[in-house]
Design a protein that fits this description.
The chain contains no helices and 11 strands. It is mostly beta strands. Strands 2, 4, 5, 6, 9, 10 and 11 form a 7-stranded mixed sheet that branches. Strand 7 and strand 8 form a beta hairpin.
Length: about 120
């Protein structure tokens, strides 16, 4: 079965940092674009960052320069390094895997809470 297991969420003060991890199993990881999305109360789901199998990255304007997405194919894991966190970054963050050979094949993690508050 396919599993995306997230870790690293929690409570952090404004200006602080967190690193999220997502470990994938049940897929050929190197054939998937990986991404992070977030959902805040009262808002639509938002793309945060993506990284292709070849290492090309894409970021939402709101996080550009503060967040960095990376992947380790040997560990089947994607990361999101979040620096200079702001209260508006508070959301549930979801890991996503999308097959580059068939983009309708898509999987989601369970989500992890990130709260930025003093």
């Amino acid at each position: 079965q396919v599993q995306l297991v997230e870790s690293g969420g929690g409570l952090v003060q404004p200006g602080g940092s967190l690193r999220l991890s997502c470990a994938a199993s049940g897929i050929v990881f190197k054939l998937y674009t990986m991404g992070w999305y977030r959902l805040a109360p009262g808002k639509q789901r938002e793309l945060v960052a993506t990284i292709t199998s070849g290492g090309s990255t894409n970021y939402a304007d709101s996080v550009k320069g503060r967040f960095t997405i990376s992947r380790d194919n040997a560990k089947n894991t994607v990361y999101l390094q979040m620096n200079s966190l702001k209260p508006e970054d508070t959301a549930v963050y979801y890991c996503n895997a999308r097959a580059e050979y068939q983009t309708t094949r898509e999987y989601w993690g369970q989500g992890t809470q990130v709260t930025v508050s003093s």
